[in-house]
Design a protein that fits this description.
Layout lengths: L19 H14 L12 H8 L3 H13 L3 E4 L3 E4 L13
Antiparallel strand pairs: 1-2
Helix pairs in contact: 1-3, 2-3
C-alpha cells in the first residue's frame, strides 16, 4: 500500500495499543460528536479511506458497519455513507 494521502479525514497511529479498526471507529465518532463531520455529509468510500490510511479495505468496512449498527452512520444504496445528526450512542467500551 502507498503512504497515507495528506487529505485524509482522520489519522491513525499503527503503534497505538488500540487496533486499527477501533481507532478508525473512535476517530469517526469523535468527529461526529465534535461537529467536524456535519450531519448528512458524505464520508469517503471504504476503498478511498483505506487507501488514505494505508490499511486494508476490510478494516474500514468493519469500522463503518459497526458505526452503522451503533447509529452513528447511515448507508444509502448508491448514495454512500453519511454521518447522522444524533451521535448519542456510546463507544466508551471500545478496546484494542
Amino acid at each position: 500500500m502507498s503512504n497515507p494521502v495528506p487529505d485524509a479525514i482522520i489519522y491513525i497511529d499503527p503503534d497505538q495499543p488500540m487496533n486499527l479498526q477501533n481507532q478508525i471507529r473512535q476517530k469517526l465518532v469523535d468527529g461526529i460528536l465534535n461537529g467536524s463531520f456535519a450531519p448528512g455529509v458524505k464520508l469517503p468510500s471504504s476503498r478511498t479511506l483505506a487507501q488514505q490510511l494505508d490499511v486494508a479495505r476490510n478494516t474500514v468496512v468493519a469500522a463503518y458497519q459497526q458505526l452503522i449498527a451503533d447509529g452513528y452512520l447511515v448507508s444509502r444504496q448508491r448514495s454512500g455513507i453519511r454521518g447522522l445528526r444524533d451521535g448519542s450512542s456510546d463507544l466508551s467500551g471500545i478496546s484494542g
